[in-house]
Amino acid sequence: MSPEQHERAVEIFETTIGIEYSDQVERTPEWDDAVAKAEDTTPATTVTITFPSCIPAQLLDRVTAFATDLRRIPTIDLVDVVEIRTCSSCGCTDDQGCFGGCSWISDDQDLCSACAPAEAAEQSR
Q: Which domain of life is it from (predicted)?
């Protein structure tokens, strides 16, 4: 039995029987049942695809088509496609902001405060 299956058997045993696992439980019929269930149970497979909010439409179409193809695979239980808000100028995100810090200049514009002055200067030329 793999370490993952053993861990799953412990989880099944403790939730089904309500007794904390110890070495002694491995000699019980309840443990054998938990092991059988753990071996029959395959863990859920989730695929998460993230993409920046500023990708071209053609690339977004390809990502969406790829996610659709993945959903057809029987061993994959869930496919999440998640858009990550990304600055259209420098590529920073909520999780990885600019060096020195930045924030979004508005709720409807994907431009960070570090890039806004540079973009304003470029537009005034």
A: Bacteria
